[in-house]
Amino acid sequence: MADLSLYAGRWIALAENNEIASVGVTLEDARHAGRVARPKERLHLAWVTPHPPHLPLPEWPLRPLARLLPTSQVWLVGGAVRDLLLGRPLHDWDFAVSDHALALARQVADVLEAAYYPLDVERDTGRVVITDPHTQRIVSLDFAGLRGKTLAEDLALRDFTINAMALTLEGQLIDPLGGSQDLTQRVIRATGDQTFTHDPARLLRAARQANELGFCLDDATRQAICAQSDAISAVAPERIRAELAHILHKAGAASGIQLLSELGLLSPILPEVQCLDMVKQTHPHYYADAWTHTLAALAAVEGLQAMRVGETRTADTDARVPVPRWAWTLLAETLMPFQHALCAYLDTPINAEMTWGDALKWGALFHDIGKADTGTVDAQGQRHFYRHPEIGAEQTAQRLETLHFPKKSTQAIQTLVAAHMRLIGMVKAPLTRRATYRFYRDTEDAGVAVVLLALADALAVWGRKLEQPYWRLLLSHAATLLSSYFERPDEIIKPVPLLTGHDLLAMGLAEGPRIGQVLAALQEAQAAGEIGNRADAEAFAHTQFEITR
User: Fold this and answer.
1) E strands along 447-496, which residues?
2) Confidence of residue 314 (pLDDT cuts 50, 70, 90)
3) Among 415, 479, 488, which Cα is nearest to 445's?
C-alpha cells in the first residue's frame, strides 16, 4: 500500500486503479477537485487516518455511521482492519461494541433504512444489511458485544493475529498481538493455544485464509493444526461446506486443496478425494497417480476460466499443467468466439450459493473419485477404470449430501462427474447433430460445463505428451458443441415441437407412455435435421411408429 502519511487527517479521492486523484481538507473539497482532475472516472472518497499507519477509511459506510455511533467504546475489528492494512476492498464490516450491540445495530438499521437481523441474542450480536450506493453490492454491518471484559480480551479470543486488530473511529490502530507485523511477514499465526479447541472450524479457516492471501502458516500453528486435524469431523457440515466453497471459489484452488491434505484435514472431510493418492495410473496419463492428476485438472479448469476474461496461459503459468505452449494457444482460439457467452454462463447461479463456474471446480475435484473402486490391470500391465464416471457420480452425491449441499448443486456436480468422459468418447466419430442433441439431452444445463471439464481433464491427462492432432480434434468437437448451445439452441438443443400429445392422439395413438416415447423420437429427429415441418413430423410418426389414421 502507498504511504499516505502526507495526507493524514485529510480526504482523498481515489481512482479505480487506487491512484490519488485529489486531496481536500473536507469531503466536498476532495470530491470537487477529483471531478475536475478526473471527470470521466468513477472516484472513491476516503479519509486518511491521522494516526499511523494512516489508513484510507472509505466515505461509505463510515461517514453516515460516524453520525450514529458513539465516539468511544465502538471499534472496527477483524477482517475489515486486516483488509484495510492490505489495501483490499472491503465488503463486510465488523464492529465490536462495549455494550448494547443489538440495540445499536437496530438503531443503525432504522436510520439508514436497512434490514436488521438479530444474529445471536445471547452474545449480543446483530446484523445490518444494506446496499452499497456506489457498487450496488449487498454489504453486511455486524455489531457484536465484547467477548471478554475488555477489548484486549476480545481480540485475544479471536482466531489469528491478523484478524485480532481493531481500529477506533478516530483511526487509531490497536494491535496487542502483533497482527500488523504478521501481515508484513505474510504469516498466519494462531492467537493462542486454545485457538482451535475453542472452535475446530478454525482448522479449515487457517488453511483457507493462508491460501486466499498467499500467506504461510507459522510453524507452531501448522503443528497445532496437524495435531488436532481429527477435530474437524465434529464441525457442522454446513460450516465445512462453506470453507471448502471459499477455497474452491478463489484462484489457486488446487494449492488450497493440497494444503488441506498436507495438514491432515482432507481425509476426514473428503476421504474419496484424499484416497486418490493411492490410485496408480498408466498410459496415457502423464501423472502416475490420480491425486496429482486431480489437482492438475483443477488447475486446468482455472486456466480455462482465466481465458474467458482474456488472460493468457503458457506452459509456465501453472507447473501442475505442463502442456506445450501451443495447447493453450489453440484453446484460446477455440474459446474466443464464445468469450462473452461463456462469461455469462459461468456466472449464472445454480442457486444462491453456487454458480456454474463454482460447480465446474467441484466437478474437477470429484471427477475421478470413482477410480479408487474400479481399477483393474490387464495382461499388458495397463490400468483401466471402467465405469468410474458412473460410480464416481454416485459417490459424489453421497458426499455432497453428507455436507448438506442444496439439491440443485448436488445434481449439477453429479452430472459433471457422470459425463466428464462424454466429449472424449465422441471424438472417435464425426460429431452429428443427433449426437449433439443427445449430449445436451442428457447433460441439460450442465452441458457447457461438461465440455470445459473434459478439456481441462484432457490437459491434465496428457501433460507434455499431448499431441496436436488429437487436441485439435477435441477442440473441434468442443467448438461444435458450444456453437450449438450458444448459437443454435432452438434448432439443435431444444427445437420447438412440431407435434403435441394431442396431435398424436388425434392421429390414432392410444394414451399411455407411448405418447412420450413418440414425442421424444420426434424431437430428436427434428434436432437431427431429418424433419423440418408439421407434414414431415406426421409422416415420420406414421412411418416409424405405424400410427393408424
Assistant:
1) none
2) low
3) 415
In contact, 125 and 119? CB cutoff 8 Å: yes
Query: How many domains does the chain divide into?
Result: 5
Last residue of a domain, one of 269, 284, 318: 269
Q: Identity (one letter) of the amino acid at 349?
A: P
Last residue of one domain, picked from the residues 241, 269, 297: 269
Query: Are residue 538 and residue 486 in the same domain, yes or no?
Result: no
Same domain? 167 vs 277: no
pTM for the predicted model, two decimal places: 0.91
The residues near 303 (Cβ < 8 Å, ≥ 6 apart) are 313, 317, 318, 321, 328, 456, 459
Does the CA dihedral 14-18-21-23 come out positive or negative?
A: positive
- Residue of 453, 423, 417 lying closest to 438 (CA atoms): 423
Q: Which domain holds residue 541?
A: 501-545
Question: Facing residues of 76 across strands?
Answer: 95, 167
Hey, what's the cell of 399? 458426499
Pair (279, 398) in one structural domain: yes
Give yes or no: residues 532 and 460 share one domain.
no
In this structure, are 355 and 409 located in the same domain? yes
Beta-bridge partners for 349 = 355
Tell me what pLDDT residue 411 has: 97
Which residue is it, cell 486443496?
257
Which of 379, 489, 366 shows the shortest CA–CA distance to 420?
A: 366
Q: What is the mean pLDDT of the chain?
A: 92
Beta carbons within 10 angstroms of residue 276's beta carbon: 21
Mean pLDDT within 159-182: 95
Q: Are residues 78 and 136 in the same domain?
A: yes
Q: Which residues contact 12 (CB under 8 A, 6 or more apart)?
A: 4, 20, 21, 22, 23, 24, 30, 45, 46, 47, 48, 56
Pair 446, 413 in one domain: yes
Nearest Cα to Cα of residue 524 among 423, 415, 442, 445: 442
Query: In the chain, what's the furthest Cα-to-Cα distance?
Result: 90
Residue 515 is predicted with a pLDDT of 86
Nearest in space to 205 (alpha carbons), one of 263, 165, 159? 159
Give me the phi and psi of 373, to 5 degrees please. -105, 5
Instruction: Please check whether residues 430 and 462 belong to one and the same domain.
Output: yes
